[in-house]
């Protein structure tokens, strides 16, 4: 057994022998078991790593004691489990005890005969970090990307794993060893020709409404590549972990252009991943509040205003200076209780009770100038009390 190992298993045999009219107990000295027959490192949960290792225990007929101890590693004691997988009809785990003031436990195992028994021992081990990174290379036309995902595994647990099967909850498995204080990068997902949509996003809460009033008039609209986690995109089999994404584009000369990097959150099946690549001035949004009136005023018996509604009209002019069609995601926010009166029959999605998201398709510019679309949003804010917050 390697002396550098921090987690070890030793076994002792407790023999019960009937001698004459009394009972005598015999116990052999502690015997080190063989190295792990197989080890699985499961990375499904980012908070702790599940280790599953298979061992072969040499059991004698009767009662056997197996001691499991650890040093210099952080093991969740309550998570330690032993499962009999070789001869479950002949071998029974009776109980487990915890010696006081020791990083150890003792299993008592009853065996109907002398045999070699395969068992699986599992436990949660801290300080094995995993990071997910993405690399996306778009084609020159920006219609699809070759998507790769990498697992960066960092072992600071104090334990060496000479050979292990490394599993995430999706992607390829790896047969690798990883020593204490070692870092490895592994390619575990490779999907070519993933369709993308290039999306411009105007968030009315964050961007200026009138670019002409900005001192340098240099207002860019954030642009992202949108990837849908579904079967049509050759994905959709599992949720995609969050991580850093680096984005590139084919330059048409067998090289690539670095577009930037972004961080993505967890993307469930059926949801969208949007990767920011920069700001664009090819689309200009000019938004104005055309009307803001207090209506339906209510007074108490002292003629004091206590409740009213607000009638609001907002218009947005959207200009596309590109030679290609584009999709603008427009995000509007209406605080408090409200109802929509009219929005030019444009459909919107409620992201939450106060956030509306429009997907506006823009044609390409023509010889006369930019393509123009307009949105008129007429709504009423309801049941406002004097002194309440306003936009």
In short:
With 391 residues, the chain is mainly beta. 0% of the residues lie in helices and 61% in strands. The protein is built from no helices and 27 strands.
Structure characterization notes:
This protein is mainly beta and 391 residues long. Among the domains are: 7-125, Immunoglobulin-like; 283-384, Sandwich (Immunoglobulin-like). The chain contains no helices and 27 strands. It has strands at residues 7-19, 22-27, 31-32, 38-42, 49-59, 62-70, 81-84, 91-97, 104-111, 115-125, 128-138, 144-155, 161-167, 174-178, 182-195, 197-203, 221-228, 243-250, 256-264, 272-280, 283-299, 305-320, 326-333, 337-342, 348-352, 355-362, 371-384. It is elongated, with a radius of gyration of 33 Å. The model is unreliable at 1-5 and 11-33 (pLDDT under 50).
The biggest beta sheet is recorded as: 6 strands, antiparallel
Proportion of strand residues: over 45%
- Specify Rg, calculated over alpha carbons: 33 Å
What's the quaternary structure here?
single chain
Query: Would you count the extended β strands for me?
Result: 27
Termini, distance in Å?
70 Å
Question: In CATH, what is the class of the domain at 7-125?
Answer: Mainly Beta
Number of DSSP helical runs: 0
Helix content: under 10%
Features:
391 residues; mainly beta; Immunoglobulin-like; six-stranded antiparallel beta sheet; 27 strands; 61% strand; disordered N terminus
What is the strand and helix layout of this fold?
Blueprint: E1 7-19, E2 22-27, E3 31-32, E4 38-42, E5 49-59, E6 62-70, E7 81-84, E8 91-97, E9 104-111, E10 115-125, E11 128-138, E12 144-155, E13 161-167, E14 174-178, E15 182-195, E16 197-203, E17 221-228, E18 243-250, E19 256-264, E20 272-280, E21 283-299, E22 305-320, E23 326-333, E24 337-342, E25 348-352, E26 355-362, E27 371-384
Parallel strand pairs: 4-13, 11-18, 16-23
Antiparallel strand pairs: 1-2, 1-3, 1-6, 4-5, 5-10, 6-9, 7-10, 8-9, 11-12, 12-15, 13-14, 16-17, 17-20, 18-19, 21-22, 22-27, 23-26, 24-27, 25-26
